[in-house]
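User: Please predict the structure of the protein below. I'd like the answer in structure-token form so I can feed it into my own downstream comparison script.

Assistant: Understood. Taking the following sequence of 476 residues as input:
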Amino acid sequence: MKKVISFRILALLSVSLSSPALVQGASLLEVYQQALQSDPLIHEAESRRQAALEAYPQARALMLPQLSAGGQYSSANFDGSSAVSGVGGGIARVTSESATTTRAWTVDLRQTLFRWDQWIGLKQADKRVAKAQVTYEAAQQDLMLRVVTRYFNVLAAEDQLTSIHADRTAIARQLEQAKQRFEVGLIAITDVQESQAAYDQAIANEIGSKRSLATAREFLREITGEYVPTLAAPGEDFPLKHPAPASETSWNELAMSQNLSLVASRFDEEIARDEIAFRRTGHYPTLDLVANISSSTGEITDQIRNGAPFPDIDTNGNRDSITLQLSIPIFSGGRISSRVKEAVYLHRATRQQLQRVARATERQTRDAYLGVISEISRVQALQQSVASSRTALEATQAGFEVGTRTIVDVLNSQFALYAAITNYYQSRYAYIGNVLQLKLAAGSLQVQDLEEIDQWLQERRRPEDVIAEEEAASSG
């Protein structure tokens, strides 16, 4: 009887973890596309990229003609006196009043002929634009990995809940049978107490597992913007492929040449080096061509001198000029030299940052490569562990039937089997994560990689639905 019950629960666990369901599950690619539309981080990265793209037209604008226009209107009144030389050398005092109105406009055209800082600034802007594009691509790859990680974390949490519930259900059956066998004197009360303790612990574990599943779904919702009801999971035929090329050195060389974080750090180092040259231009002369056109008109009215009125006066004039302006910095109090030293130190810092990122990239690449290789072996070992645990449970149950094994042995073997099944499925998720982590380190992670994984995913039911059906069947 116990074998029939245990195998029914094991079958239920296998169905919940791997079998297709009537409810269509969201594929990995669908979840990624949803995150691409909703994730705040990727939208922030896109806005920063668009802002950085404006660096080049801003730097180029400084080298183009600068045209400005201005106007002026003024009104002034004068009321006063002055001393003037009179006839015969005498001094005469003259009182006067007047009102003056002036209107003027001017147009200036300035064209840079030589400003070395602007050429260096244009060069820096070009590199900033390139870095912005690389940084955005890195954000896209990071989003892929975050989606994959949280997607399979949900699946792993579902597997854990299903396994723990199946274990609790099996323990409940064992507890019920232990009570029946105790009543007829076949076993001691300690077997009942052991089963009761295991059942109570299983209930606590299931509560904690439900909380972990809710948390995993919240993490996925954080980047998708809404809950995903069901997720597709890898089927039993999911392939375990070795990295291609099958060489750790080849992957490392690939990462050193195209890892996006490393490429961005190289741009930072080049920009910082150009900044040294840019600040040194503070000592360089500048040459500008300036063209100016201006016009002014004015009126002097209400003139009165010593009480006698004077006629109004109109003034107007036009002026145009072309000027070559040469400026040679001589001394700025040491400010330019200090700024150059500052740039040198900052460049040294970016060189060390580049070295740090390069070493981290190499470590991550080697670790991900070894992770893929080891995870393949681990998946295969855990698959064998499931078969061995199932055989061990059968043997333990048979021993319990003849009295050579205790109920504790059965419970432990039962728990070991459920744990082995869960670990087997989770090891496959870890394998997928290591594969994508390796491609991320190498800078080659693409949407096509998610599409390839989707080909091996199949629909499955929510653990809550499986548990509800199992409980309904038990109560019925």
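That's the full token string. Residues 1-23 have pLDDT under 50 and may be disordered.
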